[in-house]
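ok trying again, last paste got cut off:
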Amino acid sequence: MPSGGWPTGAWRACRCARSRKAELLAATRAAAYNRFADRIEAAHASSPDPWARSRAIGEAYVAFAFDEPAAYKLIFAYEQDEADKTDELRAAERRSQRTLTRYVTEMVAAGLLEGDPEILAHVYWAALHGLVVLQMANKLTRAPSFEAIRHASNRLITRGALPVDKAEGRPPTRKPHEI
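nice, full thing came through this time. structure:
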């Protein structure tokens, strides 16, 4: 008998059930990650304009979170042991991360934003994720609204990442709808 006095057959059955549970959870998480990435990729493909594409990606992120809150929480609020992750789950996680980083990388490459694209993408993501989680937890019940905070945080991050006009020493002037 294994330690704790369990009969060997019962111990094997328990280990097998835990293994199947981990596999099922990994498959469910991978499917959720892929649905999330599908939405973000569709938003990315929705416009040739980088600023419009950025806004569409933000909208798609928020829509997924509130349309599929259980999937969103499963993706971002639940940690699964690395040993229990399947290749399918790891691939879905990487796809999701690439999808959230790609548009920022393209904007930096086009000279629309400055900075390390990976860090900048994580800053955008952290701000939006934090706001979504606060909304899901009903922590934003007083004014300002979720949308007002979302647009303000996005605008502030973007302004901080705009290229500095070398002659003026400040970010170039942009119209409010472009940020």
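cool. Residues 132 and 138 are 10 Å apart (CA to CA). The domain at 8-178 is CATH 1.10.357.10 (Tetracycline Repressor; domain 2).
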